[in-house]
Structures are given as structure tokens and as C-alpha cells.
Amino acid sequence: MRYRLLGHVACAFGLASLVSLASPARAAEIRTTGTPGAPDATTTIDGRQLPAPDPQFGGEIKDDALNSKPWWAPRIVPPKGAPNILLIITDDAGFGVPSTFGGVIPTPTMDRIANDGLRYNNIHSTALCSPSRAALITGRNHHSVGFGVISEQSTGFPGYNSIISKDKATIGRILRDNGYATAWFGKDHNTPAFAASSVGPFDQWPIGMGFEYFYGFVGGDANQWQPNLFRNTTQIYPFEGKPGWNLVTGMADDAIDYLNRLNQTLPDKPFFVKYAPGATHAPHHPTKEWVDKISAMHLFDDGWNKLREKIFENQKRLGVIPENTQLEPWPTEILPNWDEVPPQDRKLFIRQADVVAAYAAYNDHEIGRVVQAIEDMGKLDNTLIIYINGDNGTSAEGGPLGTPNEVAFFNGINKMPTDVQMKWYDVWGTEQTYNHMSAGWSWAFDTPFTWFKQNASRLGGIGQNMAVSWPARITDKGGLRQQFMHFIDVVPTILEVTRIPAPDMVDGIKQAPIEGTSFAYTFDKENAKAPSQHKVQYFEMMGQWALYDDGWLLSTKVNRAPWEAFGAANPDPLNNQVLELYDLNTDFSQSQNVADKHPDKVAQLKEAFIAEARKYQVFPMDASVAARIVAPRPNITAGRTEFTYTMPMVGLPQGDSPSILNSSYTITADIDVPEGGGEGMILTSGGRFGGYGFYLLKGKPVFLWNLVDLKRVKWEGADALAPGRHTIEFDFKYDGLGVGTLAFNNMSGLGRPGTGTLKVDGNTVATQEMQRTLPMILQWDESFDIGSDTLTGVNDADYQPPFALTAKLIKLTLKVDRPTLSQEDVKNLQNSEAVAVDGNPIHHMQPGPQ
């Protein structure tokens, strides 16, 4: 609770019941309750300055307490009647996923919200995860708040540095300082990857952005069985860990517990909860119970063409798309028709779809438990629930074939043969996979639109839907709203309905204007068909862009499928484009390109896009994808080549730990082996789906590389270490090219071979060549651990985490010799043509569950 009051003026007026401290256009009424100066007094604030200034003491001080008058500052509360707010945002789900909007996947909770309130069929994202989320919590465009792309691709430009600047306070901060309880559950993909360690800084973590409580994971994706989980800024490990424990249920449990504790402690304090589950982002990890339920429904047996047609028919029947909406032909140039898919491939693909559908249904069920808990508290009537389906369109990053390991995709392996994938068929969706589905299903799940997540110029990438309920205010139960909206409109809507103004100053910093438009006007039945108040909106993601202008949509023709992350980048993404034009007033699905009929409109809207791009920090535009992952950024290891550790430490995230990819390196461990021998992890980074480990196994030194769960390269000493002091060393000589000589025209400096040598007390005990190394990332939801292994291990056949080191670690040293990239090198890298991982590396690896 906060006990503050706005300045000295209210004190001078004796805490009058109504004091206006700003112009009528900006003022929030100040209302007080209780006896001024008494412990039970409360007040609202005008909200211009956050935090509200401390008031002057209002009592009287004499030489002795008996003749003095005590005085307490009133507790700050929101305006009377301000609603509780539950903001739900699911992940990687297109327009055709939920049953609420015609999908075949049952989402009864979203149905419930829609039937109690309103359906919205015209709200838009940015086409990518954390950019959409940054827009959602700030009310500003994603480039305005530094999230032109995800943090893992951040570059040193204001629109792309993944830092939400101090002049753009989040809705959590605004509501907290106005007396709300604020909490964030689930995915946090808005903390920079280079600021996610336990040493902070924490100003870009949820608790530093105005959320008093955080329970969830930091980063884009998370293993739902073994997540890198945090409470506030403390890693939770081991977590509940019961057999079958899953984060989808775990975070619902924690949210319900939080809400009940709040209700029992201070029942009149309104809450703002951001609820952001990992579903349905890869890996798709539902429980077996839900997989069995969905499989028994046989939703996908007829394939993706029929699925798309069925969803389209359902959408028209429900009235959530206009009757004249047209469905474009199936894109046979990139995805086969179902009747062309071989029978064994069909079996695999149906399994993929069953699992992702189970994940979506399971997630909606757990959200329902949270909603029910609010009802059980008697608070549902005055709770505004905003349930947004997807932070972008459905993901197609599994490629045409899908994958049992998404980490493989990010390392350039995006067409793993189906016969190889079948080795994981029986464990698909379990802790043994980091799975993703075929893009054929993704195309169908974006019905009636086309294309996917990442494609900012197509409605399949940016077209979302949502359900909103607020029984105390919304009376048009089950109504449909078709006004154009964007994620940046959520914050101003919340501010309007709570009657809390956007602040002028936060922590002494003048605030940039909110860029969204409130859609609270749509809550009233008489405004059901009112014109859209949000008139103009730009879109841009990795060089693909569009501009909406009062029904018109200028968009670039898609020139890259999402799974084509390693191709040559468009050198001039502003101008080197084929421009298309759509009239969305008559063409809901963006299916009728009319650019040839309106060349003047095309030219006009392009100029308008350029103006918006300049206004909102979109320049410099960059169409590169994978190259930005390996571009340098200011993590805490930047500029360092030697790292020393003298005690166990776990939980250092990938973005803040030393990277040894595409480099030569030497890891040296000085240890003292106890009587009876030693065992356990010395150093590991990554996990089951990509990483390395340096450990003692039955006393023998081992260094192992896990190449995205397809092959494990192992160096092992023949003899167990005798008790006493030893120095064990792993030295890797990378076959990359030196400084200034990297052949960037084909990224051949990445993922190249190398030779590793394992030594004990200066003597070589094992040496071999690695024909391939990982070029891009390790498993990025696993950490850099010393002395034990959190979450998953790099080799299940050798050990199970935590595999604590029983020898005493005296000193661990990591030295990295990596090529230095000049600005010209980086420029060439961003315009490169291919990664040095060949197109079909499977033949050189031994795949399958280990």
C-alpha cells in the first residue's frame, strides 16, 4: 500500500472532499474519505506527477507528544468504482484458432467472456511477440518503445534496442502509483536479453516497470515442463516439480493464490493482472490428458485444406467475418495440398496438430480457473476482462515439415525429414521435445487471412481477435464490434475506464504522449456500429511493412517466409518492394489487390507510411533476420575474453553469459577430488535441445556438445581421476577465418568445424574433430550453470540434473578467442546468403531420443 498525497495544496485545503489541481481536460478529481490525518483516510490523486509528491505534515508538533497532534498521510486509492482488470494475452495464435471465432479448438473460457460481453474481430498486433507486448503495456508503437524486433535481435538504434525508455511508463506503473495492486504472470519478453541476469539492472523487469509481483519466465519461449521460472527476480529452482507438473497450471495456481491473498488482506483494493501464458508458442507442451481429449475428437484427420474450409464456414455462420469475405486459394507454391502429402507424413502432421490444439484448449481451461476464482470472490461484476487471442498470427517457424526441436530451426535446420521426426512421434509434446508444427496448419489457423507471424504486411501476421467483458458496464451481451483497433489502444482504454489520466511526469521525467486510441466507446450498445476512432496505423517487421488509413491498406508483397531466416536480406526494404493495395471496407480478408486501379493512392499512402516511420523511430529499416541474432550487443560479457569463477553459480541466462559459438576457446577447471572419487557438473550452458557440458562421470572427465538433440559429440578420459588436486582442460580450435577475413558472402565464418582436445594435468586424454558447430544459439531458455545443472541436462544418458559436483571447485577459467567484426563485416553479415550449416545436415547426425 502507498500512503501519499499530491503535494501541499490538498493539505492547505484540509483534505477537501473534492479538489481539482489541473485543467478540466487533464484533471482527475481528488476525492478523500475518512478523517483527515487519521490512519483510515484515503485519497485519489490527480495523476499528473508519479509518484505523487509527499505531502507536508498536517498535524501539530509541540515539545512533548501529549500536546502534539499526530497526522498520517492518506492512503492513495483509485477513483471510486474503478474496475479490477484482467488483461489476458495468449501467444502465437491466429484469427482461426479459438472456437469463439470459428475455430475447431474448444476455448470455452473465451466463449464465456464473449457471451458475457463483446467479440472484437478487427484488432491488430505488430506481427511478432515482444514488440506486440511492448505496445500492449505502454500504449505506444513498438518502435517508439525500442521493440522494432525481439530483444534477441536488438541493434543499437532507438527503435530496435529493446529498451523501454523512461519517458514511456507502462500501464502497470501508472495504475500502481494510483493505488492499484499490479501483477504479471507468465511470459516476460520485454526485459532485454542483455539485462536478464540475477545482478540486474531490474528497471526493465516487470517489478521495475510498475508490477509489484511477477511470476513467470523471461524470454520468448519456455519449456512448460521444466521452465526457467522466476518469482520477482529470484529463480525458482527446484520448482514444484511434482510428476506431471506443468507451468500452464502452475501459473494459474499462482495467480489464483495471489488474488485470494489480496482479497483476504485488502478486499477493497482493485487489481490489475497481466496474464500472459506461454501457450501456444513453441514448444507445444500440453498434458497427456488434453492430448488424449483432442486426439479423440479427430479434428485434423481430413487435413489442413478441409480444416481451413471448415473454420471459414464456422466464421460466417457465427457472423464474426462479413458474409462477402473471400478465401484465397491454397498456396501450393509453398505448401502442398493435403491430398499430396504422403500417408506417413500425414500421421506425423496430425500428431503435431493434435498437440498444439491440446495446448490451446488446456491453456484456455486454466485461464477459466482464474476467471472462476474472480467470480468466487464476488468481484466478476466489476472486473474488466480483456482476452486477446494471440500476440501475432500463428507461427510458421516450424517450416513446412514441423520440427521436434525449435532450437534446430534457429540454427538453420528447418526441413528435418519426416522419417527422422517420426522417432519422436510417441513423445511429441512431452519433455523430450521442443516441438513445432507444420506451417500447413499455421496457414489454416490464420483463416480467413493468409501468411503468418513475422509477416507484418499481411493480416495473417497482424490480424487478431479478442473478447471483452465487464458486466457492470457492458450490457450488449454477445455483441460484435468491427472497429479498427491496435494493441496500442488497450492502455488508453484502461485509463479511460479507470478515470486515471496519463501522467505528465514520472520520476521527474516528462512523458511522451500515449499513441493509441481508447476503444471504450465501443462498450456502449449505441456505438456498436460507430466509425472507427483509430484512423491511421503503420506496421513494420524485419523489412515487410504496411499502412492502414481509414479502411485502405497499403502493404508490401511477402518476400520471405518465416522459416527462411537465413537468406539474403533485402538491401532496401523501403523501396525494393512490390506494393499492394486493399480496400478492407469491402475486402475483410485482404484478398483483392487493387493497386493497379489506384496508383495515386499507392503513392500517397507510401508517403504517409514514410511520415509515420519517421515519427515512430522505424528507421533505419533492416530486413535481416538471423544475422541480427549474432550481431554484437551490450551484454555484461561484452569486450571480455576471459572469465573466472571460484564457486558454484547457476541461472545466468544466455544473453548475459559468455558465448563460445563460432570461436576458439579454452575451459580450465582446477578441482580437488575427494576420497572415493568425484562426479558432477563443472560447467554447462543450454540443455537437452542444444548446449554443452563439462563434467565428471564416474570420476572420468567428459566434455560433450549436444547438437540440437540430433547428435552428441563427446570427449571422455579413459580413467577416473584419483583423489586430490587436478587440472582438467578442454581446448577447442575453431576452423573459422581470422579477423577481417571472414567470408561473409555466405556466412562461412559461422557453424564451421573445429578440433577439441581434452587434457588432464597437462596430458591429452581425448581429441577429435567436430564436423559442425552450432552457428546461432544454444537453447535460450536454459542457463549457464557452474557446479550443477538446472532444468534439463545436455545428455540424459549420462546424468539427470541437478548432478551437483562432488569435487571441490577451486577455480574455473573460460578464455574465448573470437573473431572481431568490423562494421563492414557486420554489414556484409546482414546481407549474407546462407549459414554454413548445409541445407540437409541430418545425414551426418544420429537423431532420435537419447
From TrEMBL:
Keywords of this entry: Calcium, Hydrolase, Metal-binding, Signal
CDD domains hit by this protein: PAS_like
Sulfatase N-terminal domain span: 83-498
Feature: compositional bias, Low complexity: 32-46
InterPro entries for the chain: Alkaline_phosphatase_core_sf, Sulfatase, Sulfatase_CS, Sulfatase_N
Residue span of region Disordered: 31-59
MF terms (GO), sorted A to Z: hydrolase activity; metal ion binding
Signal sequence, renumbered to the chain: 1-27
Calcium in keyword set: yes
PANTHER family hit by this protein: ARYLSULFATASE FAMILY MEMBER, BLL2667 PROTEIN
Protein family according to the UniProt entry: Belongs to the sulfatase family.
Name of the protein: Arylsulfatase
Organism: Mycoplana dimorpha
Lineage of the species this protein comes from: Bacteria, Pseudomonadati, Pseudomonadota, Alphaproteobacteria, Hyphomicrobiales
